[in-house]
Amino acid sequence: MTPNPEQMRLIAQVLSMHYEDERAQSDIAKALDLSTAKVNRLIKQGRELGMVQITIKSPLMRFFDLEREITKRWSLKRCLVVPSVTGSAPSTLNEVGKGAAKLLLDVIRDGDKIAISGGKTLSVLIENLMPGAEYEVEVVPMTGGVQGQHYTDVNHIATQLADKLSGRARLIHAPLHADSEGERDLVMSVRSVREVMDEARSANVAVVGIGAVVGADSTYYLAHPVSDVERNRLYKTGVRSEFLGHLIQEDGSVSGNSYNSRLVALLPQELARIPVTIAIASGAEKVEPIAAALNGGYFNSLVTDEHTATALLKQEVLHA
Fold this sequence. Notes:
Layout: H1 5-20, H2 25-32, H3 36-48, H4 61-74, E1 78-82, H5 89-107, E2 113-116, H6 120-127, E3 138-141, H7 154-165, E4 168-169, H8 181-189, H9 191-201, E5 205-209, H10 219-223, H11 228-236, E6 239-243, E7 246-249, H12 268-271, E8 276-280, H13 287-296, E9 301-305, H14 306-319
Parallel strand pairs: 1-9, 2-3, 2-5, 3-4, 5-8, 8-9
Antiparallel strand pairs: 6-7
Helix pairs in contact: 1-3, 2-3, 4-14, 5-6, 13-14
């Protein structure tokens, strides 16, 4: 029932004393000669009538809004958006690494198996990892190694991460890129390689970077050099992202090109079966790659920065 004018006035008076004057319910009850239970009911009634509007003002609200939009758009379990450092991509990446390190420590437990990819972003995560305890965990590669880039190589990263967590690392003795599909099948059939891949498939937690396929610093082409003509051809066919070494189309599907058939790596679909899957990426050149990987549904948690998150959502509006 709608309260009469006298009741409405009493409700408004109680709401004003409680929310504007910040007085306790017991104090209001004493001042108005009411019971505390009556004051509580009046406050509840006022809220139900729409007489109370709470506005939270915080510089962090824009991050929460971005996290909420991205989580809803791609049905993620977690999204963490950190501040961008205007004019400094390395500093922004470092903030993303800090956020990812905190998230990793929040989700891991003793006895966990952590599957990882290679890449610069994973290295930054490890640099910012400050565990306050030792963890009985095992770190396992999800891909073969990249020769000549030890600081982003998956075995190097696995060792560093295990050392930081006081756990142990399982290494893989195989390249990421084989010369042919037949060679790839042969390498994957080697027992030591097969066992590492099986261990990765049974992981509780996975952490993976997302690579760009456009730009001079594209991690995919650093590891697998091709001509500019071939790069342009791949982009024109819809390739937008590198994920676990696989080229991914704009709609999230794994590209059918021959490069993917030569990879010593878990399939993105296999990664998606791991309970906690954290993807990390930052920068304007990563907007399309992130969108493509998200469209594939290969992970359930994302860590990125404010500028990248904003551009990601704007791009989705343009493509809607």
